[in-house]
Design brief:
Length: 71
């Protein structure tokens, strides 16, 4: 069955989102390590900018266990 908006198979969308979240997690992990931050240090740095997040959330994002909310 196709999506009326995109013409893409409806079953492909969840797969695409899963692949995308893994890519974002890998990028986040790579950049964090490049900067020499631990997950706790990154959470603290984000808090300075008013973004309240825990090191556990960052871990989940990096491993693809959890995703950020999409607005």
């Amino acid at each position: 069955r196709s999506s009326p908006v995109t013409g893409v198979q409806t079953c492909a969308l969840p797969i695409w989102r899963h692949e995308m979240s893994n890519s974002i997690g890998e990028i986040l992990n790579s950049k964090r390590r490049e900067l020499g931050f631990s997950q706790t240090e990154l959470a603290s740095a984000l808090a300075i900018d008013g973004i309240e997040v825990t090191n556990q959330a960052i871990s989940k994002w990096e491993t693809g266990v959890s995703q950020t909310k999409r607005y």
